[in-house]
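Query structure, 138 tokens:
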């Protein structure tokens, strides 16, 4: 039986990416991404819910995220889900589920460009993309 672990998100960054490096020099960016769901109930009342996602980016793509992304920026993230566990200081078992990003596209004006994992870094900020006629970024 085939299996699929794929995540596609469009949302806004809750803070600037946190860029760090492993002891062997591999870049790691950690980002908080907010997605928003809006609906109208049967009674006509509008509802809204924000979901927060922890996104981890590795390698050259992590460095690009650290260089070009800032709090509030709208981004498209493509990746996979990964759950890991650890013991906290009190010995309690803790769990977290993260999105391990394999691709990122900057949206919402400003310096928009598509970057896939391992892509070459631009020497200067990429030019603005023309406005699309619809809300779908791809």
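Result returned for the query:
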């Amino acid at each position: 039986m085939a299996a699929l672990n794929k995540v596609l998100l469009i949302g806004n960054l809750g803070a600037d990416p946190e860029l760090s490096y492993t002891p062997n020099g591999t870049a790691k960016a950690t980002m908080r991404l907010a997605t928003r769901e809006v609906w109208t109930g049967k009674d006509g009342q509008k509802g809204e819910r924000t979901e927060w996602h922890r996104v981890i980016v590795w390698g050259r793509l992590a460095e690009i995220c650290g260089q070009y992304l800032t709090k509030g920026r709208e981004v498209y993230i493509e990746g996979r889900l990964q759950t890991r566990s650890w013991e906290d200081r009190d010995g309690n078992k803790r769990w977290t589920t993260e999105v391990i990003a394999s691709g990122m596209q900057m949206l919402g004006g400003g310096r928009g460009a598509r970057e896939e994992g391992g892509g070459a870094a631009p020497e200067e900020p990429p030019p603005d993309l023309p406005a699309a006629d619809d809300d779908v970024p791809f």
